[in-house]
């Protein structure tokens, strides 16, 4: 009876991040010490969103409390390939010692309907491969490897380029005395961002009270889990930006103060059991009173911001510029009922995508479908999701407003046509 020296899954080109519609390709590697009999070598690819939390309930009697479990699951896909041997239980193949056995596999991810990989407090969206060696008269050997799937959110779309604005005010009361108002008016430069970028916050703070107040801003993530008709919410605070104190009777202004976004999960809006939202909290710390705060909801996307996109939003101007450059505007693609995969990233404009491990850290890969004692388990036992991350991001203020035509040459050329 042979023994396993190596049993692992590797991806082509050492990839760890994939997008909907792409092929997940690689090899299952087997190295033996001695010949080994087996019925088959199979590999599975699964994508699933799971939610679980517990709540303590009182029986109202002397029996004490009991624990109620809340569970929900959405399986996106479960695919299988036989890499060696067959499905018949009485057929036994022999793998020989002395060389490295490589078994290639290839799975296609669905084009739509799958969410971004996520590891949360009470649930996860997880994608993984599991290879299983079916051995006669013995427990099976297994190896497992997870990978990240990123469902695209392009923050260069017009709806993510609009700023988010809000305002709030309050007065302080002490017995029969009422102070003047304390006000916040804040806005972001846009609604959509990618990890690694910075949120430019502009704000006006008015302090007509008798107390010195301190402005600050924080980035918050809200995880919402759904199961059995109920929901569970977990909030996490990330980066903090603190301003200078504002003395009584004075005002203060923030002009594009930058709040850095760490390597966090993108917003998740297309999952039935998990939702991930983000907002910027702009607040004033008021000694001896409740703080004054407002929320600015934002979206964390997966396609980094391109300054070029903001100049190409006017279709008429773009067409005139193309005519002036003797270029031809391509005709729209034919109508199709079937889903179409998202267009590939143009590396000449965007450069190759860059990723970073999430700041939440690694998680254990063992799940309910694994053996409790983990017998025969090999391979990587932990997993850290990778998300789009913009390195060396530099904030650039938008161009100043002007009524002058930014493309006078293009307009004059088109008028002559």
TrEMBL record:
Domain of life the protein comes from: Eukaryota
Gene Ontology biological process terms from the UniProt entry: protein transport
Xref: InterPro entries: Arrestin-like_C, Arrestin-like_N, Arrestin_C-like, Arrestin_domain-protein, Ig_E-set
One Pfam family this sequence matches: Arrestin_C
One of the record's GO cellular component terms: cytoplasm
SUPFAM superfamilies noted in UniProt: E set domains
Coiled-coil ranges from the UniProt annotation: none
PANTHER family referenced in this protein's UniProt entry, alphabetically: ARRESTIN DOMAIN CONTAINING PROTEIN, FI21816P1
Family that this chain belongs to: Belongs to the arrestin family.
Protein's name in the database: Uncharacterized protein
Organism: Owenia fusiformis
């Amino acid at each position: 009876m042979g023994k396993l020296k190596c049993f692992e899954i590797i991806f082509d080109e050492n990839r760890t991040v994939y997008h909907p519609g792409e092929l997940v390709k690689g090899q299952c590697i087997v190295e033996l010490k001695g010949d080994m009999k087996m019925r088959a070598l199979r590999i599975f690819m699964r994508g699933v969103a799971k939610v679980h939390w517990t709540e303590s309930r009182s029986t109202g009697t002397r029996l004490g409390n009991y624990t109620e479990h809340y569970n929900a699951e959405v399986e996106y896909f479960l695919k299988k390939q036989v890499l060696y041997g067959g499905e018949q239980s009485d057929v036994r193949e022999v793998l020989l010692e002395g060389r490295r056995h490589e078994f290639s596999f290839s799975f296609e991810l669905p084009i739509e309907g799958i969410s971004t990989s996520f590891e949360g407090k009470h649930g996860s969206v997880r994608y993984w491969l599991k290879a299983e060696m079916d051995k006669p008269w013995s427990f099976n050997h297994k190896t497992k490897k997870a990978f990240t799937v990123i469902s695209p959110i392009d923050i260069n779309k017009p709806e993510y380029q609009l700023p988010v604005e809000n305002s709030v005010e309050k007065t302080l009361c002490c017995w029969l005395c009422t102070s003047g108002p304390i006000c916040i008016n804040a806005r972001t430069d846009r609604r959509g961002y990618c990890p690694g970028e910075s949120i430019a916050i502009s704000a006006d703070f008015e302090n007509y009270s008798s107390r010195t107040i301190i402005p600050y801003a924080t980035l918050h993530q809200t995880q919402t889990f759904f199961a059995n008709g109920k929901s569970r919410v977990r909030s996490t605070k990330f980066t903090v930006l603190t301003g200078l104190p504002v003395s009584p009777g004075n005002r203060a202004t923030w002009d594009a103060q930058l709040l850095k976004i760490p390597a966090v999960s993108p917003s998740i809006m297309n999952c039935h059991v998990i939702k991930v939202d983000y907002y910027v909290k702009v607040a004033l710390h008021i000694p001896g009173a409740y703080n004054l705060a407002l929320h600015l909801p934002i979206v964390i996307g997966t396609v980094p911001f391109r300054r070029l996109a903001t100049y190409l939003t006017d279709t008429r101007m773009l067409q005139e510029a193309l005519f002036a450059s003797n270029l031809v505007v391509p005709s729209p693609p034919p109508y199709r009922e079937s889903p179409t995969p998202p267009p590939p990233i143009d590396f000449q404009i965007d450069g190759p995508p860059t990723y970073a491990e999430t700041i939440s850290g690694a998680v254990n890969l063992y799940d309910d479908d694994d053996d409790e004692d983990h017998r025969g388990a090999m391979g990587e036992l932990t997993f850290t999701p990778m998300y789009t991350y913009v390195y060396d991001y530099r904030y650039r203020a938008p161009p100043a407003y002007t009524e002058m035509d930014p493309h006078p040459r293009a307009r004059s050329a088109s008028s002559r046509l």
